[in-house]
TrEMBL record:
<dbReference type="InterPro" id="IPR027266">
    <property type="entry name" value="TrmE/GcvT-like"/>
</dbReference>
<dbReference type="InterPro" id="IPR006073">
    <property type="entry name" value="GTP-bd"/>
</dbReference>
<feature type="binding site">
    <location>
        <position position="457"/>
    </location>
    <ligand>
        <name>(6S)-5-formyl-5,6,7,8-tetrahydrofolate</name>
    </ligand>
</feature>
<dbReference type="InterPro" id="IPR018948">
    <property type="entry name" value="GTP-bd_TrmE_N"/>
</dbReference>
<feature type="binding site">
    <location>
        <position position="230"/>
    </location>
    <ligand>
        <name>K(+)</name>
    </ligand>
</feature>
<dbReference type="InterPro" id="IPR027417">
    <property type="entry name" value="P-loop_NTPase"/>
</dbReference>
<keyword id="KW-0630">Potassium</keyword>
<feature type="binding site">
    <location>
        <position position="254"/>
    </location>
    <ligand>
        <name>K(+)</name>
    </ligand>
</feature>
<feature type="binding site">
    <location>
        <position position="124"/>
    </location>
    <ligand>
        <name>(6S)-5-formyl-5,6,7,8-tetrahydrofolate</name>
    </ligand>
</feature>
<feature type="binding site">
    <location>
        <position position="251"/>
    </location>
    <ligand>
        <name>K(+)</name>
    </ligand>
</feature>
<keyword id="KW-0460">Magnesium</keyword>
<keyword id="KW-0547">Nucleotide-binding</keyword>
<dbReference type="Pfam" id="PF01926">
    <property type="entry name" value="MMR_HSR1"/>
</dbReference>
<dbReference type="InterPro" id="IPR031168">
    <property type="entry name" value="G_TrmE"/>
</dbReference>
<comment type="function">
    <text>Exhibits a very high intrinsic GTPase hydrolysis rate. Involved in the addition of a carboxymethylaminomethyl (cmnm) group at the wobble position (U34) of certain tRNAs, forming tRNA-cmnm(5)s(2)U34.</text>
</comment>
<dbReference type="InterPro" id="IPR004520">
    <property type="entry name" value="GTPase_MnmE"/>
</dbReference>
<dbReference type="GO" id="GO:0005525">
    <property type="term" value="F:GTP binding"/>
</dbReference>
Amino acid sequence: MFIDDTIAAIATATGEGGIGIIRISGMHSLEIAKKVFRSISNKQPEEYPRTLCYGHIVKDNTVLDEVLTVYMPAPHTYTKEDIVEIQCHGGMIATKMILEWVLENGARMAEHGEFTKRAFLNGRIDLSQAEAIKDIISAQTAKSFLVAQNQLQGSISNKIKSIRNKVTEDVAKITVAVDFPEEDTPEVTYEELKESMLLCQTEMKQLLETFETGRLLKEGLKTAIIGKPNVGKSSLLNEILQEQRAIVTDIEGTTRDVIEEMITIDGVPLRIIDTAGIRDTEDIVEQIGVSRSKEIMQQADLVLVLLDLSRPLTEEDHIILEQSKEKKRILLLNKTDLPSVWNPNEEPSIAGEMVIQTSMSQKIGIETLKEQIKELVFQGQVIISNDGMLNNVRHKNSLIHAIKSSEDALDSIEQALPLDILETDFKNCWTYLGEITGETVSEELLDTIFKNFCIGK
């Protein structure tokens, strides 16, 4: 990437729409805009910064489109560079033609996430805030949007920088003591360093504890519907979705592949997965589906196990109960509208389990199930803290490494090891914390992060 060149891209989503936006950023953005834009009033965008100017995009005396153009001078822009945005008619053609004309006049096509990357490199936002922008765009619910918005406003950054500043002060004290032992400087005591690192470690662990909830809000609670064939799994999916998403028949083995849909329960996203019925079968295709069902069950955050009250428990039922017993699960005793042939109170394999009696045909138990999911996973409510909630695996891993370094430092203190060894432990903690905000990060990692952004952002 050449930070001193000028980039351009379509900033709006592909497809039909009311308007399309072409964004230009860099030192030559105004110069390029003046080559392609003709104002109706003859007043130029630089005369009225941050004000929409009405006119046309003209190429070789041919009007490409009627537009509004705005010039935003640095540094108070998204990238901290000069930016020009051209608002044209939406759709595929107008935006593409204008972008091509802008590129012909000196701009370079922006890479994925390059506008946001420039905002980071130019110091307007840190790396955790840059990643929050992507989360805002891809948010599935209001709660996940709020977590990302808090992160963009600095909830994670402020917490990490506060901890890191304390570690920085300790590193500075240790470095002075190691490099200038003869100087008349305040003595660094092991007790003082221990107290400081314990405080930092506590704050890091408290932040790490928020990850699981943050991840579920961001990615969705992976919820697998598991059971033997024809027990009502697809009917359950349809009832939860309130639409006929899965085919329902009396023929066993109708569902041969997984069906995944996203729904929300009071703002909490669920990635709910209908799986093939688990049973022994000679059908090769069905065998593949059964194998995938077992894999998904083990990967799921929550398992909904369906049992049929109108049929005796079979070997398949007992295998499913055994294989899912270590998972967070809810047992659904289905087909309560039919005569029951077994008593759940007398079945030792489900003793003490969370059980809900359901009937898909009578729509019984669905609302109870939704409440139980919230209670089991989130203890009934999800509280979004303004102090920050981790939802990024990269942040989690860096924080785990920082905590490990803090443990190494405390071990070194307990053993009264030389200060130069403590210095290494403290610096490692400092480095890992800096990875979260981007203060200690490689160009390769930056490329990996921003290539997952859309072009134009």
